[in-house]
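Mods, move this if it's the wrong board.
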Amino acid sequence: MSDTCPTVRIKSSNAAGFADLNETDFDPAAHELWVDPLDHDGDGKKGGSQKPDADAELKALRAEYAELAGKKFFAGWDAAGLKARIADLRKDKGQ
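Not the wrong board. Structure tokens:
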């Protein structure tokens, strides 16, 4: 036995009342490293978020909208929403 994994005594529902667990009872293949469900960006801490990847079409639509409208796009608009707004801008400008 090593000093890094001491024997742990836990209460059990069997007749003995307790069960002793030690390093020989631990199977690394059967146990995965627990990851906090609130660690969204994978840095080991709760919270955080990853930037969504904007695909090439969305980037092009955002640039086109900014050019036609003369103002920045709303970041929450998806490709379908941008296409509809661009079509409206083109119609208003007679393009």
